[in-house]
Write a structure and sequence with these properties.
Elements (H helix, E strand, L loop, with lengths): L10 E3 L8 E5 L5 E5 L4 E5 L13 E8 L5 E7 L20 E2 L1 E7 L2 E7 L5 E8 L14 E10 L5 E10 L14 E8 L2 E8 L11 E6 L4 E4 L9 H9 L17 E10 L4 E11 L37 H4 L3 H10 L1 H16 L5 H9 L9 E3 L5 E3 L2 E2 L4 E2 L5 H4 L4 H5 L1 H14 L26 H18 L2 H16 L18 E3 L5 E3 L3 H20 L3 H21 L42 E2 L4 H9 L7 H15 E2 L19 E2 L2 E2 L18 H13 L3 H14 L25 H7 L2 E3 L4 E5 L3 E6 L4 E9 L2 E10 L1 E10 L3 E13 L3 E5 L1
Parallel strand pairs: 6-7, 30-34
Antiparallel strand pairs: 1-8, 2-3, 3-4, 5-6, 5-12, 8-9, 9-10, 10-11, 11-18, 12-17, 13-14, 14-15, 15-18, 16-17, 19-20, 21-22, 23-24, 25-28, 26-27, 29-30, 31-32, 32-33, 33-36, 34-35
Length: about 850
């Protein structure tokens, strides 16, 4: 079976690398169902909570008959992989069905192709699966559904009659862990351009989190259906379904009232000799009653995990709802609107992915950046009924993991800002307008509903400072002065909070010294490079914003603190190879309220869980972020480069056969990567920072991308390659980079590799775009528009072709930076719309 020549392919997974593949299909903030490596559907995570391993008893099957030959019936999947042990033999659902002998999985997210062939089957099958992904348009990227297209190729010189049959269980009321299905009903419905099964419930409470509707539809003209399988014991349901399919048509006459809630929809087609036909299906859902992070708990008992799945009453204060449910009335409405716009949405998605995959970026960078975008479609992310965007840190198998759009974790990811700028600005609005109190303390975990945002009242030093930098980044990308003006008073407060008595920089010398809760879930005591980088970056960002808003006094204060802090850090923390921590208790012995999250040292005089003389993998993450924001160097440039050399020398492990790890294992054996913290000079604390022996991809990406920014391209790419080699489909899912939970948000730092290699920066404030002088064609996106930039040598000059493929772009100046910087300024602002090209010689 040949691949679709119109769909780009970044990775081809052979039959030995399919076991762990599960690519999420769904919309931003809608949940997802995942396409398995062999073509199965798994992980039905559509009812507002994760459900790893829940398969929903879904199935697609093929009936094919050639002339007078006996018909062939197969599950539309590749063969089952080991292990084959279990209480009933093989554990996989429908394990006794015959399947295709040969299978490949091709992917360039969000496009997946499963190629199925078998010498005993007269047709080869290509399953094409995707969901709309339109950067800069969160609504068009927010359909709660998945598109599945089956392309059948007749391998014979005779006509073939074929039926593709989709089977779904009406499990409304049960989310994979909680609840129960009651009074569920499957109906057959027709609409313009589609027909299929509409799944609803008459017995599940309308206020339940698991209440909603589902739909399985096809665009085919000739269909048959069975609303319910016979409700028989001894697996009689699957037996009778299989028997029913042997003529290529489903019989609904025996659908029993109160029978099994499993329904099937068959689409029929005739395939000419050596010809090809396609059949399109869509699976859609609509579950409006999302609950808050931990329903049924109070602010005093609310912890970092997770869902109880309990039902809500009409006045339930835990209900936050789903934004997508305000855009569609039910699952059938989703299906109708998705099918109506399917060609347009597929073409726009294809335009973006083709431009990205066709660029001259290294393949491993494309793969890391695109594959991790899938996190936006999982239960890690959601939008409440009012449209605001939130995220867990990641997901446990059946619950969210670590609530509250955690500021320090979400500091690292860059995909949201550069692809969906509106969603990123929503995160800033929540952080500054809702989660920051009048003193300037920003709760690093925001509680919901939004009126409870301040209830945690704990501040993370890195999270709070990073949010100031992200505010600057998002303002620059958008040019939205009203956005900046509205958030600036609280942004000032978040910095002034550093200077309160018992605060992070109480003596106001530009050095963080107090109790500093951070992303490693402990408190650091004393100056350290991680916090200094975020603090110095926040001071620089605040200086720029204050100057723009003509708040010169505050701008100068930030500049003075930055200069003294930068000088002190290089003089006192750099040991000639990298930056260390000076472990010391708070000088005043006072810790301001809200700075200790209860996860740190037991003794301030001899605090445990410190870095000390260790070489921390992300010690320069503030500088990484400063490069993303174009804020210049926060520390001595030569020291920065020397530190990255040391991290590569001391933290990068070519294999882990001899590595001892007392914590979680995300890499092992012959795998390579960057350790969190090493102690090359000895003096390791008896109980050091907890995760020091681990490898976690989000931290690795931020460091690897920083290497790319500093011109260490081979080293940076080696680190990214080491990560993606671990997620090869056989050992781990390429679409699920885990840390503290599945689909971890921090891994979206991988998008920044695109920025570093291309040198792309855009300011809508000054209407200036930067690119590095690098030969080739490269993608760009600024959160509200996207396109490509082609740079070629032309008689000693650089010929630049800037294409806008979506959205609009205002440009006063284009800067090409090589050994020297060259720029093209325009007499008046150039307004480029989608489909337009700007041609320049520099």
């Amino acid at each position: 079976m040949m691949e679709n020549p119109k769909w780009p392919v970044l990775n081809t997974y052979d039959q030995d690398h399919l076991t762990r593949i599960a690519m999420p299909l769904g919309g931003i903030g809608t949940g997802s169902v995942s396409l398995g490596g062999r073509g199965d559907l798994r992980d039905w995570e559509i009812m507002n909570r994760p459900a790893k391993g829940y398969n929903g008893q879904s199935l697609f099957t093929l009936y094919a008959k050639t002339g007078e030959e006996e018909a062939v019936t197969r599950a539309l999947e590749g063969i089952l992989e080991p292990p084959y042990e279990g209480q009933s033999g093989v554990r996989t659902p429908y394990h006794g069905l015959p399947r295709f002998r040969h299978c490949q999985f091709l992917a360039a997210y969000p496009f997946a192709q499963v190629l199925l062939s078998d010498p005993a089957v007269p047709v080869d099958v290509r399953l094409e699966a995707f969901n709309p992904l339109v950067p800069a348009n969160a609504d068009d990227s927010g359909f709660p559904g998945a598109v599945l297209r089956f392309v059948l190729t007749n391998k014979t010189d005779q006509p073939v009659s074929a039926t593709v049959c989709g089977t779904m269980t009406n499990f409304i009321g049960f989310d994979g862990t909680n609840g129960a299905s009651r009074g569920n009903v499957n109906e057959f419905c027709r609409d313009t351009g589609l027909q299929g099964l509409y799944l609803r419930s008459t017995g599940v409470a309308p206020q339940a989190e698991q209440y909603g509707t589902m739909a399985l539809v096809t665009t085919a003209d000739r269909v048959s259906y069975k609303r319910a399988w016979p409700g028989e014991s001894w697996n009689g349901g699957i037996l009778h379904f299989w028997d029913d399919l042997q003529d290529g048509k489903l019989d609904d006459s025996d659908a029993e009232e109160g029978g099994s809630p499993i329904g099937s929809l068959g689409a029929e087609v005739e395939i000419a000799p050596n010809g090809q036909q396609e059949l399109t299906f869509a699976i859609c859902w609509h579950f409006p009653n999302r609950q808050t992070w931990t329903p049924g708990t109070t602010s005093e008992t609310q912890g970092d995990c997770c869902s109880t799945g309990c039902c809500a009453s009409e006045s339930d204060p835990d209900r936050v709802g789903n934004y997508y449910a305000t855009q569609f009335s039910d699952a059938w409405d989703v299906a109708r609107k998705l099918i109506d716009r399917l060609e347009e949405l597929e073409d726009t998605t294809l335009s973006f992915v083709s431009a990205f995959c066709g660029s001259d970026l290294p393949d491993v960078v494309k793969e890391a950046a695109l594959s991790n975008l899938s996190t936006l479609r999982t239960q890690t992310c959601f939008r409440t009924e009012d449209g605001l965007f939130y995220g867990w840190e990641g997901c446990n198998d059946n619950s969210g993991c670590c609530l509250g759009s955690c500021t320090h974790v979400w500091n690292y990811e860059q995909a949201t800002a550069f692809l969906f700028g509106g969603l990123s600005r929503m995160l800033r609005q929540v952080e500054f307008l809702h989660a920051t109190n009048d003193q300037g303390l920003m709760s690093f975990r925001v509680f919901l509903p939004i009126k409870r945002a301040l209830e945690q009242a704990k501040a993370a030093a890195d999270g709070q400072m990073g949010c100031v930098m992200k505010l600057y980044r998002d303002w620059q990308l958008s040019g939205d002065d009203a956005f900046l003006t509205a958030l600036w008073p609280k942004a000032k407060k978040t910095l002034e909070f550093c200077w309160i008595e018992g605060g992070w920089d109480a003596d106001q010398d530009g050095v963080m010294e107090g109790c500093q809760h951070n992303t490693l879930d402990v408190e650091y005591y004393g100056p350290n490079p991680l916090m200094q980088g975020w603090y110095l970056g926040a001071l620089r960002a605040a200086e720029e914003m204050a100057n723009y808003l003509e708040d010169q006094e505050f701008a100068q204060r930030c500049r003075n603190l930055f200069e003294t802090g930068k000088k002190w850090t290089d003089a006192n923390l750099f040991n000639g190879e990298y930056y260390e921590q000076i472990v010391q208790p708070p000088r005043s012995r006072k810790i301001a309220d809200g700075l200790a999250a209860g996860m740190g040292a037991k003794d301030q005089d001899a605090p445990d869980y410190q870095v000390g003389s260790g070489c921390l993998v992300d010690q320069l993450v503030g500088q990484f972020m400063a490069h993303v924001c174009d804020l210049g160097y926060l520390l001595d440039e030569s020291n920065v480069r020397r530190t990255l050399d040391s991290i590569m020398t001391y933290n990068f492990q070519s294999d882990l056969f001899a590595h001892f790890n007392h914590m979680r294992t995300f890499a092992l054996n012959d795998e390579s990567g960057l350790l969190m913290c090493t102690f090359p000079r000895g003096n390791r604390p008896r109980t050091p920072v907890p995760y020091f022996n681990e490898l976690m991809t989000g931290f690795e990406y931020s460091t690897a991308v920083h290497m790319l920014y500093e011109g260490m391209e081979s080293e940076g790419l080696a680190c990214i390659t080491a990560i993606r080699d671990r997620y090869d489909g056989r050992k781990r899912n390429p679409f699920n980079e885990a840390e503290c939970g599945n689909h971890y948000a921090r891994a979206m730092a991988s998008w920044a590799a695109v920025l570093a290699l291309t040198g792309f920066r855009y300011s809508a404030v000054t209407k200036t775009m930067h690119f590095a002088e690098r030969q080739g064609t490269f993608p760009w996106s600024n959160g509200s528009a996207w396109g490509t930039c082609s740079i070629q040598d032309h008689d000693g000059q650089s010929e630049v072709m800037l294409d806008v493929l979506y959205g609009g772009l205002d440009l006063d100046c284009f800067v090409l930076k090589g050994k020297t910087s060259r720029e093209s300024k325009f007499d008046s602002t150039a307004r480029l719309s989608a489909g337009e090209t700007l041609h320049m010689l520099l």
